[in-house]
Task: inverse folding
C-alpha cells in the first residue's frame, strides 16, 4: 500500500496520536531485534538507535546516541555510508544500498534502506533520515559454503574414477563369492534369487566428441552414472559389481524371475532418462540387460552366470535398451 494511502487511513482513526504510533512501532521493531536508526540530518548524529543496530556497531546504544558515523567509525566505513545518505536525500523516497564495511570489529555485508523526511519550509536536505539495516553476512557465508559444496560435488561427479589394476578379475571373483553365499542361503531357506547382467549399449560420445581422450572421459562419466544409479536404487541386501568392458552384475537376493524382470525394467527406464553432465553438455545412455534366476534358469553358479550373459547378448542383438529373460530349464522326468 502506498505511504500516502497509509497516512490517510491512519489519520481517519479517531484519537490516534502520531508520536505514540511511532513509539509503538519502534517498540515492535526492538522486540524483534530489528536494526533501526533515526538521524537528525545527513551525516548527523543518531537520534534513535535500536538494540539491533547497537549490536551491529558492537557498542551500547547509549554510546551511539548524539554521535555521528564519522565519530564512531573509520573513514573506509563512514564515507560510503554518508555518500549513500546523500543519494537517498537527492533521489527521495525509499532508497536501498548494499555496503561491505567493517562494523563491530568484523567485515559485514549489510543492506540499508533509507527514507528522508523533508521538513516543510526547510532546505531540501533538512529533515530526519530513517534507516533500516539488515545484516546479510551469515546468509552470504551460507550461500558461499553451499556454492562451494555444489562445486565440489560437480567436480567429484565429473572426475572419472580410475579402476585399479586387475579390477575386472577382482570384480568377477567378488560376484562369484557373493553368488556362492546367496546359493548356500537360498538352498537352506528354499528361496529364489536372481542375477542381472548389464551392459551399456553404445559408446558414450556426442557428435562433436567422437574420439579418444574425450570419448574415454565421456564413457567414464556414463559408467560412473550407472554405478550411482545401481547404488541408489538397490536394496541393502542386493549387490552390484562392475565387471569391466562396460558390464555390470546385479545380484537380487530373495526374488524370483518375474520380480527381477520388473526391477530390471525400472532400472532400464531410469538409465534411459538419466542426464549426465560433462563440459557443459548432457550425455544420455541406455543399457541392455539380461535376467537369470536360480533355480528356474540354472541349477549352478556357472550356468547362472552364462545364462544372464546370454540373455544380455540377446538384448543387445535386439537393438539394446531392453531387458531379456533367460530361458527356463526343463529337466526330463525319470522314466
Result:
Amino acid at each position: 500500500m502506498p505511504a500516502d494511502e497509509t497516512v490517510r487511513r491512519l489519520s481517519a482513526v479517531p484519537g490516534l496520536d502520531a508520536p505514540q504510533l511511532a513509539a509503538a512501532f519502534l517498540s515492535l521493531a526492538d522486540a524483534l531485534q530489528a536494526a533501526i536508526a533515526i538521524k537528525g540530518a545527513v551525516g548527523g548524529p543518531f537520534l534513535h538507535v535500536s538494540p539491533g543496530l547497537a549490536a551491529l556497531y558492537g557498542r551500547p546504544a547509549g554510546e551511539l546516541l548524539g554521535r555521528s558515523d564519522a565519530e564512531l567509525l573509520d573513514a573506509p566505513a563512514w564515507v560510503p555510508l554518508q555518500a549513500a545518505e546523500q543519494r537517498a536525500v537527492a533521489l527521495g523516497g525509499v532508497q536501498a544500498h548494499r555496503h561491505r564495511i567493517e562494523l563491530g570489529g568484523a567485515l559485514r555485508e549489510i543492506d540499508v534502506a533509507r527514507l528522508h523526511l523533508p521538513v516543510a519550509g526547510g532546505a531540501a536536505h533538512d529533515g530526519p533520515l530513517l534507516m533500516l539495516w539488515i545484516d546479510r553476512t551469515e546468509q552470504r557465508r551460507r550461500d558461499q559454503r553451499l556454492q562451494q559444496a555444489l562445486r565440489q560435488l560437480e567436480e567429484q561427479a565429473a572426475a572419472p574414477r580410475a579402476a585399479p589394476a586387475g579390477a575386472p578379475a577382482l570384480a568377477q571373483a567378488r560376484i562369484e563369492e557373493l553368488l556362492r553365499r546367496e546359493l548356500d542361503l537360498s538352498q537352506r531357506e528354499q528361496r529364489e534369487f536372481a542375477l542381472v547382467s548389464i551392459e551399456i549399449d553404445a559408446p558414450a560420445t556426442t557428435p562433436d566428441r567422437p574420439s579418444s581422450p574425450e570419448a574415454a572421459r565421456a564413457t567414464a562419466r556414463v559408467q560412473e552414472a550407472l554405478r550411482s544409479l545401481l547404488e541408489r536404487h538397490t536394496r541393502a541386501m542386493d549387490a552390484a559389481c562392475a565387471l569391466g568392458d562396460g558390464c555390470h552384475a546385479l545380484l537380487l537376493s530373495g526374488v524370483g524371475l518375474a520380480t527381477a524382470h520388473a526391477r530390471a525394467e525400472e532400472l532400464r527406464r531410469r538409465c534411459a532418462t538419466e542426464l549426465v553432465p560433462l563440459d557443459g553438455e548432457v550425455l544420455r545412455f541406455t543399457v541392455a540387460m539380461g535376467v537369470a534366476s536360480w533355480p528356474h534358469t540354472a541349477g549352478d553358479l556357472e550356468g547362472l552366470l552364462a545364462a544372464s550373459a546370454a540373455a544380455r547378448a540377446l538384448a543387445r542383438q535386439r537393438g539394446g535398451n531392453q531387458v531379456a529373460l533367460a530361458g527356463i530349464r526343463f529337466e526330463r522326468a525319470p522314466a
